[in-house]
Amino acid sequence: MSSMSYQYVNRQRYRLTPEGTVDLRLSEDIVISEEPLNIVLHWNCPKTGKQLEKPLMVTMRTPGQDAFLVTGLLLSYAIIHHAADIEKISCEEHNQCDVYLDKHIQFDWKSLSRQFVSHSGCGICGANDVKKLAHTFTHNIDDKTHWLSINQLLSLSTKLREQQALFTATGGVHSAGIFTVDSCLSVQEDVGRHNAVDKVIGELLQQSLLDNQNILMLSGRVSFELMQKAVAANIPVVVAIGAPSSLAVSVAKQFNITLIGFVSEYTFNVYHGDFRLIKAQC
Question: Cα separation of 260 and 258, whole Å?
């Protein structure tokens, strides 16, 4: 747990005693850090070959693992498709990441810039239609059957919780983890749930660990934007402690992703794709 990720603040703690009086105590509390991150793109103009530089967006995030966040974000917008599409990421300037794209990367800047909104809860704004999503991502999600057991699935919420150091300290963050049936590959935490997913996907993309049988585990609800990130990363199973939205279910059906909500130690709901589950338990 990085010291950049949290801060100490003064607090007044009020408690109503059994006698009906108010007990007031002054103390310190740990709160999650929230700071802006300016993301600046550097790329070559396809017509002139001249290097261009423009600020892409400002997002509010918990400092730490910024390069992972940026990598996952660019993947979810289909600006990149592989880690090699990024020449380098420089985070030397405070609260800024300069992203240098490989020379072959081309995109429509005007179309791209319209999609971004500068706040920590932003998703893929302007892409709230499943048909548009299908035009952006045309790859097929792996449809292998019967590879995730019920016992393995039910263990995910506990495994994610065990890795939530920032949540334990502050109670103020979202988390996302990527698992295989055998192991936890990565867990990331952030004040923004979209950022947590970008960080965990970006980390595995950089390490070439994204696989067609990965499982994305979320600490909260499932929105359209989070499903889009799963689609971009070719993740076939999305599991959440909370509920899915209607558009999240639509994306699951469109791309044949197994979508599971309200998972706990003993129960879960399947909204699509139960063919990946091993239903017979020993």
Answer: 7
Write out pLDDT tens, residues 97-129.
Answer: 999 999 998 877 877 776 654 333 444 444 446
The pLDDT value recorded for residue 131 is 76
Annotated catalytic residue 91: no
Token pair for 234: 């070719």
The CA angle 245-248-251, to the nearest 5 degrees, is: 155
What's the number of CA atoms in the CB half-sphere (13 Å) around residue 198? 30
CATH fold label, 148-278: Cytidine Deaminase; domain 2 (3.40.140)
Q: What is the pTM of this model?
A: 0.90
Strand partners, 179: 184, 215
Q: 């995730």: which residue's tokens?
A: 148
> What would be the CATH architecture of the domain defined by 35-127?
Roll (3.10)
Residues 231-280 pLDDT 10s: 999 999 999 999 999 999 999 999 999 999 999 989 999 999 999 999 87
Q: Are 142 and 214 in contact (CB under 8 A)?
A: no
Among 91, 122, 184, 282, the active-site one is 122
Domain boundaries, the chain: 3-32, 35-127, 148-278
Residues 149-199 pLDDT 10s:
999 999 999 999 999 999 999 999 999 999 999 999 999 999 999 999 999
Which tokens in the block code for residue 269?
């709901």
* Helical (H) or strand (E) element with 88: strand 86-90
Percentage of the residues of the chain whose pLDDT score is greater than 70: 93
